[in-house]
Design a protein that fits this description.
Beta Polymerase, domain 2, five-stranded mixed sheet, alpha+beta, about 170 residues
């Protein structure tokens, strides 16, 4: 696995326990943080969390003092959710409650698919499986998402081992 950047580690150590305690429905990380946790060599500028609408509302009440009200999400013509950005140590956290995507065929819910747990210093962090992350990122269709999907695809390639003969 690639090294977890210190800023991501700091954010996860505070964020993940709170999500486990306060989210009623299943949740997971998506985007660059999720890709990095599976070993992709990608930069991580924030932590994207996919939650239910009800859990997004509960987190909004819980983290009202952390909210970055000045931040507006990009691509709001393609994405809609109960969105909020919060200030956390290390990296900002973006919560997307009931995320939906419109690729020109109307609004469709974004399903994380099969979740896997990644261990980070004793924390169980749910992320979509490798194939599901690639599917999600391909569906998002932005340049940065395609680059992340390609980084994840490289993880599928088998390692080549040199065999040395001593004859």
């Amino acid at each position: 696995m690639s090294h977890i950047p210190p800023a991501l580690f700091v954010a996860l150590t505070e964020l993940v326990p709170e999500l486990h305690v306060h989210c009623v429905e299943p949740w997971c990380l998506v985007g660059s943080a999720a890709a990095r946790l599976l070993g992709a060599e990608v930069d991580v500028a924030d932590v994207d969390v996919l939650v239910s609408r009800a859990d997004a509302d509960a987190l909004a009440a819980l983290w009202a003092d952390r909210r970055d009200a000045a931040h507006a999400p990009a691509d709001d013509d393609r994405f809609r959710s109960r969105f909020a950005r919060y200030r956390f140590p290390g990296l900002p956290v973006e919560v997307m409650g009931g995320l939906e995507l419109d690729r020109g065929e109307g609004w469709q819910p974004v399903s994380p698919g099969r979740l896997v747990l990644v261990g980070v210093q004793g924390l169980a962090v749910p992320v979509p499986s490798l194939d599901d992350q690639i599917r999600i990122l391909d569906a998002f269709g932005r340049d940065k998402d395609r680059a992340r999907a390609n980084s994840l695809r490289r993880l599928r390639q088998p390692s080549v081992l040199s065999i040395v003969s001593s004859s």
